TrEMBL record:
Native organism: Bosea lathyri
This protein's UniProt keywords: Membrane, Transmembrane, Transmembrane helix
Signal sequence residues: none
Protein name in UniProt: Uncharacterized protein involved in response to NO
Origin superkingdom: Bacteria
Entry annotated with the keyword ATP-binding: no
Coiled coil: none
């Protein structure tokens, strides 16, 4: 690898954004473990939805854009400007909360504009929906500051979570089948059949309707929740999760996506008055599982792919993914068995992201010294997009 290529790789957008996203995930939960601390529930949600998740999205999208659009990498100056804007938003979130959401919205809009300009120039119409969802996510961050008192309580956070879940569904539909097909190919097995376009559209429509009914607190949302749970469970099973059992990274992606239909199933039970779980369980199934664990698994997958080791693994990373997966049921147990379960849930969440940073400390902190073995380069030949 030449010096210029090594420098270019060390400047890849995922490196600073993923490292800061993991640190932000830790900072958002750590106050809950401190004695005599009473952190704001809204602040806790905003830390995830307008802090950690946008950083993960920025690292993923800015790194994947050149491959999606067949264009040169995003200029380093623009990446640095977005990074500084994100940092300003996080500082404001802690010290000047009234301005934190406005800066978060500015960062997300900047990311949406960067993505929009690239995909429009490349004529990639299928990426427009990602741009639209980012704009909606930015709007959700703006609402508490510009429309306070004129919108229902909790609506901005519902809208933000709905946008993030839609992004999870879109990006998972690209990453998980592609990685599974590559994994099977490396082991001499043929990939499964692609899902029919009509089914994909039906599952997307069911997701949009169910999330809209939930966001707007509309009556009659029970059938929509049931439909979304069924269709997205079928979508997950069609990707052949049984074939992922041999690789922890793949398995974590499947487990994370599984919390999307599981959340709709819990929402259906809540709306129908059939279970002991409340809406808080639904929100945490989605936020800790479908969002938190998915962010962890996607970051790990992209780092391995970008460093030419798509299916490498280590005990540290396996432990990180195991902690992330355990945090979800532990947090749900707190809904039915009492707040005593909050401590293990928080400990698992913190352990997951601390171990993630430990597992990828070389790739994220000093990437120029990372070497690649011949085996790594061979495995990279069949790597999937994104």
């Amino acid at each position: 690898m030449s010096v210029s290529e090594s420098l270019a790789r060390s400047r890849q957008p995922f490196r600073p954004f993923f490292a800061l996203a993991a640190l932000d995930a830790i900072a958002g939960v750590l106050p809950w473990l401190l004695p005599d601390s009473s952190p704001s529930v809204n602040g806790h949600r905003e830390e995830l939805l307008w802090g950690m998740v946008p950083a993960v999205m920025a690292g993923f999208l800015l790194t994947a854009l050149p491959r999606w659009t067949r264009a040169p990498p995003v200029p380093a100056a623009l990446v640095d400007a977005l990074l500084l804007l994100w940092l300003a938003g996080r500082v404001a979130h802690w010290w000047w909360p009234d301005h934190g959401s406005l800066l978060a919205a500015a960062f997300i809009l900047g990311l949406a504009a960067t993505l929009g300009a690239r995909v429009i120039g490349a004529g990639k119409t299928r990426e427009y929906k990602i741009v639209a969802l980012l704009v909606l996510l930015a709007l959700s961050a703006l609402l508490p500051g510009v429309a306070a008192g004129r919108i229902p309580a909790g609506f901005p956070h519902r809208l933000a979570l709905a946008c993030v879940l839609a992004l999870v569904a879109i990006i998972s539909g690209r990453i998980i089948p592609a990685l599974t097909a590559t994994w099977l190919c490396l082991h001499g097995r043929g990939p499964g059949r692609r899902l029919p376009l009509l089914f994909e559209r039906a599952s997307a429509l069911a997701l949009a309707v169910a999330l809209s009914c939930w966001c707007l607190d509309l009556g009659g949302g029970t059938p929509a929740s049931a439909c979304a749970a069924i269709l997205h469970s079928a979508r997950l099973l069609a990707w052949r999760p049984r074939d992922a059992l041999g690789h922890p990274g793949l398995l974590a992606l499947y487990l994370a996506y599984g919390w999307l239909p599981a959340g709709f199933a819990l929402l259906f039970l809540h709306q129908a008055g059939l279970g002991s779980f409340g809406e808080s369980a639904v929100i945490h199934a989605w936020s800790v599982g479908a969002v938190g664990l998915m962010c962890l698994a996607v970051m790990a997958s992209m780092i391995r792919r970008q460093t030419r080791r798509p299916f490498s693994n280590s005990w540290t990373l396996t432990a990180a993914l195991a902690c992330g997966a355990t945090a979800v049921p532990a947090r749900l147990m707190a809904e039915v068995a009492g707040r005593i379960w909050l401590l293990p849930a928080a400990a698992c969440w913190l352990g997951a992201f601390l171990l993630f940073l430990l597992a990828f400390r070389a790739e994220l902190l000093w990437p120029s010294i990372r070497s690649r073995s011949p085996v790594d380069r061979t495995r990279a030949d069949a790597r999937p997009p994104g």
